[in-house]
Amino acid sequence: MMILGTDPLLSGNVDLTVVLIVLMKVGIAFAFLLVAVMLMIWFERKLISDMQNRIGPSVAGPWGILQTLADGIKLFFKEDLIPERSDRFVFKLAPYLSLIPAFLVFAIVPIGGDFRNDNGGVVTWFGHETLVQVADPPIGVLFFLATSSIAVYGVMLAGWSSGSKYPLLGAVRSSAQMISYEAALGLSIATVFLMSGTLSTNGIVSEQSTWNWNLVTTGVVPFIIFVIAGTAELNRPPFDLVEAEQELVGGFHTEYSALRFALFFLAEFMNVITMSAIAVTLFLGGPNGPILIEAIPWIWPPIWFFLKVGVFLFVFVWLRATLPRLRYDQLMDLGWKILIPASLGWFLLIAALNIANDQGWQSWIVILVGLTVISVGALALMAAVRKAKIQRASQAFEEAN
Amino acid sequence: MTNGKELLLGEPERVFRREESPVLRLNEEEANAAIDDTDALDDDHRMILNMGPSHPSTHGVLRLMLEMEGETILRSKPVIGYLHTGMEKTAEGLSYLQGATNVTRMDYAAPLFSELAFSLTVEKLLNIDVPPRATWIRMLMCELNRVSSHLLFQATNGMDLGAVSMMIYGWREREEVLRFFEKVTGLRMNHNYIRPGGVAADLPDGWREDVKKLLEIIPPRLEEYDILQTGQPIFRERLQGVGVMNPAEALALSATGPILRSTGYAWDLRRHMPYLAYDEVDFDVVVGTYGDCFDRFAIRLNEIRESLKIIEQILELMPEGDYRIQNKKVTPPPRARIDESMEALIHHFKIFTEGFHVPEGEVYVAVESPRGELGCYIVSDGGPNPYRMHIRGPSFVNLQTLPHLMEGGLIADGVAVISSVDPIMGEVDR
């Protein structure tokens, strides 16, 4: 019961209806994700072709909306190749290690619910009070971080087990990239925990029910860091070094074909959707929004939720259509020298402000002192980076001569 | 007892067996020395990565053998020959009139330049001057071709860096130019338009409007490229300081074109050894400062602007007159004359069967193609076919700068370098 956590559905007697409701939620979430991925792939292709003066998919179904289905069926019937030099077991396991975490994360995302008047998102279905999310574990967002760490294994093992050089390079890149950006991602989320005082996603959304979205209360910076680090975590352009078609052919999935490739593809787009959903939950108030027509109040939270997710999806596609790819060392520089120090500094500032509120200190003095400390720290960091760079250059110069 | 081979090849001790002799063979000592050269092979930290001939960013069928430590390229070796079609040998079997069809397939992104170099060489051998209008039409077409070729570079360069939209934009603008080519020559590529003695046909009606339209369409699009690429921080980061070369190195490696100019060495055949009527138009030679990938990118972008400037002047200066020389030995007679005149019929027949004879001699003529010095060298024995034809392909020569430029960079830098050298494999392998 701990896993399903604070859901009022499970606090009372667990009877058949309760089990059926849980099963229904699982089924809906599963089906929703699959359909959403299908639409997302179509959306991305259609949008990007609009940005590039092309027509895009237009044959399968109206506006080509069934193109993904057609591609999926094609991939399903293609020959399943396993390279001779691969580690067969790991090679077969890797796609699932990518796909399953992508499914799991969505379980903790509240996609609807009644958050008015400190209601905590509780709705009544078939005479049982429940939350509109599959599970609300007390560890909440930590669960998201944990599962997304598992997804690294999927990519890494896929590249390693292929027994080929390009996937291997992709695997090495992925482990370095995803692990270092996870640090920035975690630190930017930590400020949300400070503001909300809870790890539970339901709790975080309830905290933001009065238009006090974390986007504003945490001061925008953690949100920006979250979106950048999240893009890197998803291996989306401009951080798609793991796949890097122009350099590594297909990166970690070069050797994958047929259904196993489809699974990676599915996982990638599913991760885009879940990452957007998590961003909406953490920073944009989840399903919170005005109830425009009082007669059907239950329909508005999901609508707001999907609209907000849609904005993120659009931004991800937009980035892909616009930006060139970063180089490996530039990616690492951005992660370690900018994002992690910035999110850590901002985290300390928010923490100091929280203490100031508790202790009744003057908040502007805290902000002033905090910003001074942060800028001194930033300057010291920049000086250190500069010194190291000069040192490296002179060393290289000496070696060359 | 003698066998057929010995009869064929002379004294028995000098008999060459096919599987032994013409093939380059190393004796054991030399072979071992060559292996010693690759001393690092058994080092565990190093890896040989084979890039190409089938790879998304090797521009066709270039193959690179990279010796790498992690992602850093220590040494690289371009391997060519995957597109070898023996065009230079083929040229010996084709008459001078057919020759342009052959050379146009070498640099398929800038086919008119190969035709131009070939035609200028043949005309120099024949010692004839083409009418002024033919010269100016050639200039117009070549400058447009330079624009389309550099637009293609913008497309592939953007794509190689991961800016996939740039590919579509570059192709889109190139398509506008190719549409004009199609109207003039009948084909989008491999035109066979510039021929010894002039050009294949006069410019079609309304060509001025078409060219003016191109001059209107392309400059604003270049401004968009500036927004999307030149001013883009990630884009600059990826190119600045990557693949650096100084003028001495570039000259030592015989690099020409944008690669040489990027080092700050202002060498442009249009300016320094003017051919056609380039001494009558006003244009700037764009040079770089640092010799890095960004300079090479910026040079090509600005050369488009310079070419448009030249085209604008050509529009004003285009003379009236004949578009090909009226020398019946070189130019086929008009179709109508064949029905009336016996001589015309004979000329027509001779030109298209035997071809025209070219005086004995050897000649080298070079033009400035979008990739550098494109030279054509023809030896004539007085017959209707070249005795030997050689093309100095700028892509081929520029390709040898690759190992130098890629050394010490990451794979991503290597891709940027290949892209900035902009080799066309058809011209490399010929």
Order of helices and strands of chain B: HHEEEHHHHHEEHHHHHHHHEEEHHHH
Could you say which overall geometry of chain A the principal axes of the C-alpha atoms support? Answer: globular
Please mark out the parts of chain A with pLDDT under 50 across 5 or more consecutive residues, or reply none: none
Rg of chain B is 24 Å
How many domains in all of chain B?
2
According to DSSP, the number of beta strands of chain B is 8
CATH T-level topology of the largest domain in chain B:
Cytochrome-c3 Hydrogenase, chain B
Structural class of chain A comes to: mainly alpha
Q: What value does the average pLDDT of chain B take?
A: 84
Give the overall shape of chain B: globular
Distance between the termini of chain A: 67 Å
Give the H and E element order of chain A: HHHEEHHHHHHHHHH
**Share in β-strands of chain A:** under 5%
Computed CA radius of gyration of chain A, to the nearest angstrom: 23 Å
Q: How much helix is in the residues of chain A?
A: 55-70%
Query: Tell me about the biggest sheet of chain B?
Result: 3 strands, antiparallel
Low-pLDDT residue spans of chain B: 1-24
Give the key terms.
heterodimer, A: 401 residues, mainly alpha, two-stranded antiparallel sheet, 66% helix, B: 430 residues, Cytochrome-c3 Hydrogenase, chain B, 2 domains, three-stranded antiparallel β-sheet
Q: Summarize this, please?
A:
With 401 residues, chain A is an all-alpha fold.
Written account of the structure:
The complex is a heterodimer of chains A (401) and B (430). With 401 residues, chain A is an all-alpha fold. Chain A is 66% helix and 2% strand. Chain A has a two-stranded antiparallel sheet with strand order 1-2. The model of chain A has no long low-confidence stretch (mean pLDDT 83). Chain A starts with 15 loop residues before the first helix and ends with a helix. With 430 residues, chain B is mainly α. Chain B folds into 2 domains: 12-79, no CATH class; 87-325 and 358-392, Orthogonal Bundle (Cytochrome-c3 Hydrogenase, chain B). Helix content of chain B is 49%, strand content 11%. Chain B has helices at 4-9, 28-37, 87-92, 96-103, 111-126, 132-160, 164-185, 207-230, 233-239, 247-252, 258-261, 269-272, 293-317, 335-340, 342-353, 394-399, 402-406, 411-421, 425-429; strands at 46-51, 63-69, 72-79, 194-195, 198-199, 361-369, 372-380, 388-392. In chain B, a hairpin with a 7-residue loop joins strand 7 and strand 8 (388-392). In chain B, helix 8 runs antiparallel to helix 13. The longest helix of chain B has 29 residues, at 132-160. Chain B is globular and about 80 Å long. Residues 1-24 of chain B have low confidence and may be disordered. Classes of the chains: A mainly alpha (401), B mainly alpha (430).
